[in-house]
Every structure is written in C-alpha cells, then in structure tokens.
Amino acid sequence: MTNIILCGGNGTRLWPISRTLMPKQFVKLFNEQSLFQLTVQRNSKVCESQFIVSNAEQYFLAIDQLEELKQVNNKYLLEPIGRNTAPAIALACWALDPNETVLVTPSDHLIKNEVEYQKVISRAKELAQEDNLVTFGITPTFAETGFGYIEALNEDVKAFHEKPDEQTATNYLAAGNYYWNSGMFMFKAGVFLEELKKYSPEIYNGSMQAYKNVNNHGMIRIKHEDMLNIPEDSIDYAVMEKSDKVKVIASDIDWSDLGSFDALYEELPKDENGNTVNENHVAIDSKNNLIHGDQRKIATVDIEDTIIVDTGDALLISKKGSSQKVKKVVEEVRKNSELHNIHLTGYRPWGTYTILEDSIGYKIKKILVKPGKRLSLQKHFHRNEHWIVVSGTATVQVEDKTFLVRPNESTYIKAGEIHRLSNNGKLPLILIEAQVGEYTGEDDIVRLDDDYKRD
C-alpha cells in the first residue's frame, strides 16, 4: 500500500508561524518534529512507501525532513501551481499500478490514537480491495461549524453536507450518525481513476495528458501549461459526492486538523496556569494563554485567554475564539509586504538565508549553503553583492572566472555580472551577504542555470 501525502497549503491559518513557503505541516511544533514528519512516521507503520505530492517551491522541505527521519527512496510529484485535491490525487494515481491500494492523507493533521488508527486503516483496506472508495469520518466531539460532515448509515454514505450553522451542527452531534469529513481516503488507484473518468472527465483527461507529457518519471514534474489545463476541483466535489462506490469508516482516532490557533492551543503542553509552555514567557497573573515565540522574552501581566505569536518579523495578538479571523489578517498583509510569503529565514534547496537587516538601499543576510550544494547561475539588475565568508570555503564563479573564498575573505559582484556560489566542501558554508542597490527584492534574480529546475 502506498501513502499519497498531500503537501499543499498557503500558510494562512497559522500565520505568522506558517507562511506560503513554510506552511504549517513543515513547522516543528511538537517536540522538534513537524506534522509532516509525524504523518510519515504514523503511516510508515501501515504503508510500504510514501508518494509526496508537493508544490514545486516546497518539495525540498519534505526531502530535508525525510532525511532527518532516515526515510529515503520516496517518490515525488511536483505541481507548478495548485489545482486542488482531485487533480493532485489523479496525477499521483497515474504514476501507480492500477491495482495499488493508496492511502491519501493530508500532511498537516494530528492523530494521537494510533492504535485505533491502525484498526480503521485495516478495515478501510478490506473495503478498498473490494473496489470501494473509502473515506474516514471523524467521530465528532462537539458541534463544530468549521468542518463539512458525512451522514452515514453504518458504512454506507447517505450524504455529504457543507459546513453547518451552530444549530445544525448541534443536531448532527445529537443524531450520532454524522461525522467530520477528515479529507483522508483509501482506494485502488485504478478504481479512483475510473470513477474520475465517469464523473469528472475533464479532470481525468487533463491529468492523463499532463502525466503523459512528463519527461522524467523519477522526480515527476508537471509542466505549468499542462497543470493549467486541468480543471480545479476537490476530490469531494469531483468524485466522492457523486460515486455510488463510497464507504465511510467511523474513526475515533483523537484527530485534529490544527486549523486555527485555538485548535493548536488544545494540543500543546501547558503549565499550572493553563499557559502553553514557553521558556521565554514571563507570566504575571496571566492564565489560559497561547504564547509562541523563541527569539525574545514575552512578558504578560493580567492577561487571560489570549493568543500571542511572535516570529521576529511579525506579532499576532488575538482573543482566543477569534483566531479563525487570521486569514483576514493575511489578506491585509499581502497587500503591501511579503510577510505572508516567507519568514526572516528562507529555506531553499541548497540551504537557508536569514535576513539580518533590511532597509532602503541595502539588505544584509546570513547565507548557509549545505555541503555539495550550489545556488543557481544568476545575475541581478538592481543590486551589487558583497560576500564575506564566516566558515567553510566558498567556490565562486563570476563571469568566466572561478576562485575560492575562505574564512575572513570576501568578494564583490557588480550588478549585471553572471555569478554562482557553490559549496564543494564537506562542511556547511556560512557567509554574510551585503546587498546594496536601488532594489533588493527576492524577485530581482535572473536564473540562467539551476540544479533544481526553478524558473
């Protein structure tokens, strides 16, 4: 059985912890492990292999975190743009044997009752091998208005329901045969594609053509124009709500989608006053607060039932119970900044960079290049760059010259010069980059050659 792990996400619901280029599944929130890593560990116990479906800008985060788990030889499918879950799952299924049973899971959910989880997976596998499309209905614990519901008669699905109002959700809870829609599925790859062809033929045909146009079936990269030709739709709307082969497994697995800071608060360890544990928090007569931040001291006086999130470049303060409105904050932030998109520390396939200072006319970064990695061959139109090596040895190419720069040495690249930075050593390369120019935005990069096939 193959676990298809969906790694999309815009990083809006847990902003500013999560961003577009660091969505919540890759943030290490639980004992220095991410939700993505917990998903892989959990499903490795019931599946023989992982198939990662990711945005092309994020896949290297998955690779790095899988290396930490010593998980190798995984399969990857990279989407240039997101088109929702139905195309993503279809593209992955085209790459598998039609008889392969697949467990489709998001990468950003928390499941704490693994014993019960393995039981429901076992039952789902039995139903999937009988050519059913299986979904997992979470046994509700309260009248939640933020989830869709599945109405069931034993293991048969009677109907899918949109997010209800509070009274309707209360009625669902009392009825006892309504379940939260978890977004997890199991079926044979070929059976899903047959049902997709029957009920959403445009997605079926578009995904089939996109897969046919793939050049390398090792790291599967879908072409941008092919992705655009696939209609955008969820698996629920495209197939599950229309098919007569759908079964539902009632799943009491201590599940959370961590879709808000209120949900996150419930899952984090707390002190005797109900504040989330944080060694940087100084609490004076404060209780029942979510406090997140590891860069500065956070002191609270007579503060209760509040969410305080400090990431160095952004500060969020919200009443508990109102954190669903964070998405509205992100809409405002993206109008005049990049804070919705990336942290002070940005992650790249070759390593990381951290912005130390950013002002009009200049920007200072700390750059870390992993051993054996190199940046793209590139040039900039609006900035000059000064590189000072702190540790390791840099191999620098500027136009037709290549030379080494060692610790305490520096080099200078003029605007418009073609250049590349490489780490050919066995230790991380750390340098300070000072950018000086009329514009220092990240989009002032013209890539001429790139190991990671980025535009």
Cα-based radius of gyration, to the nearest Å: 24 Å
Report how far apart the termini are.
Answer: 34 Å
Name of the CATH homologous superfamily of the largest domain = Spore Coat Polysaccharide Biosynthesis Protein SpsA, Chain A
Strand content: 25-35%
Relative helix content: 10-25%
Strand tally is: 30
Uncertain spans, ≥5 residues at pLDDT below 50? none
Molecular structure report:
The chain has 455 residues and is an alpha+beta fold. The chain folds into three domains: 2-256, Spore Coat Polysaccharide Biosynthesis Protein SpsA, Chain A (Alpha-Beta Complex), CATH 3.90.550.10; 261-331, no CATH class; 345-449, Sandwich (Jelly Rolls). It is 23% helix and 34% strand. The strands form eight sheets. Strands 1, 4, 5, 6, 8, 9, 10, 11, 12 and 13 form a ten-stranded mixed β-sheet that branches. It has a six-stranded antiparallel β-sheet with strand order 20-21-22-29-24-27, with no helix packed on it. Helix 3 crosses helix 7 (201-212) and helix 6 (189-199) crosses helix 7.
Produce a short descriptive summary.
The chain has 455 residues and is of the alpha+beta class.
Highlighted features:
single chain; 10-stranded mixed beta sheet; isomerase activity; 6-stranded antiparallel beta sheet; Jelly Rolls; nucleotidyltransferase; alpha+beta; GTP-binding; 455 residues; 3 domains; Spore Coat Polysaccharide Biosynthesis Protein SpsA, Chain A; 30 strands
